[in-house]
Design goal:
globular, alpha+beta, 3 helices, two-stranded antiparallel sheet, four-stranded antiparallel sheet
Length: 221
């Protein structure tokens, strides 16, 4: 005959003892404590990378516009892209299309891109509809530009004097941008945008995760 198990005080059940159960739960809790922050960090890194690519795409489009027409187009109000009108202007300027992908009918709405050049592509991931959070844009005219974090305030600085550098003294102090939670207004630090300037013609930035200045995503870094 086989010996009868008395584990847990109940013959033949083979059940865990209370101590064994607590040990298993402790191991699970430890693993969760290790894995959850790691997964969160990986997600933030992926969003930062996606935002950098997005801002780089817009920067390249603005540079191509200057090469074609000899000047940088005016985009954004007060150094920021934050409204549906700002979104429409940038899309029309760099793609000669409306946010829904249809061609711009009136040449006056091209913001100078009279040759109707496709200088940058825009997709659904570039937009957020405040009336339909979490849903794909329906292109009703309310869409805002957004980064991979869902931030809809995007700073823009343009070299207006044409010397190849962007300096706060020449091109205006950078606008403060807030993250999706709207809790903290952030601006590039002096280390990111020194008085001596940053070599470049157009700089974009967002609040990124939006808690502290180090969370910001900068197109030039």
């Amino acid at each position: 005959m086989h010996p009868t198990s008395t584990r847990g005080g109940f013959p033949g059940t083979g059940a865990f003892t209370l101590i064994e159960l607590l040990a298993v739960l402790s191991v699970i809790a430890i693993l969760a404590g290790i894995l959850v922050p790691a997964l969160g960090s990986a997600q933030v890194s992926a969003r930062r990378a996606a935002t950098r690519l997005q801002l780089s795409r817009w920067t390249a489009g603005m540079e191509q516009f200057r090469q074609e027409y000899g000047y940088y187009p005016a985009v954004g109000a007060d150094g920021m892209l934050a409204t549906a009108a700002d979104a429409t202007t940038l899309v029309r300027t760099l793609s000669a299309r409306n946010p829904d992908g249809s061609p711009v009918a009136d040449a006056a709405d091209l913001n100078g891109n009279l040759r109707r050049l496709s200088l940058a592509a825009f997709g659904a991931a570039d937009f957020l509809d405040p009336d339909r959070p979490g849903a794909a844009p329906d292109y009703s005219g309310n869409e805002l530009l957004c980064d991979a974090f869902g931030n809809t305030e995007i700073g823009v600085l343009i070299d207006r004097n044409g010397d190849g550098f962007i300096r706060p003294a020449d091109d205006g102090e950078p606008a403060a941008v807030r993250g999706a939670a709207r809790a903290v207004a952030l601006v590039p630090s002096e280390a990111d945008l020194p008085a001596a300037g940053v070599r470049g013609g157009v700089l974009f930035y967002t609040a990124g995760r939006g808690s502290v200045p180090d969370d910001m995503v900068l197109s030039w870094k």
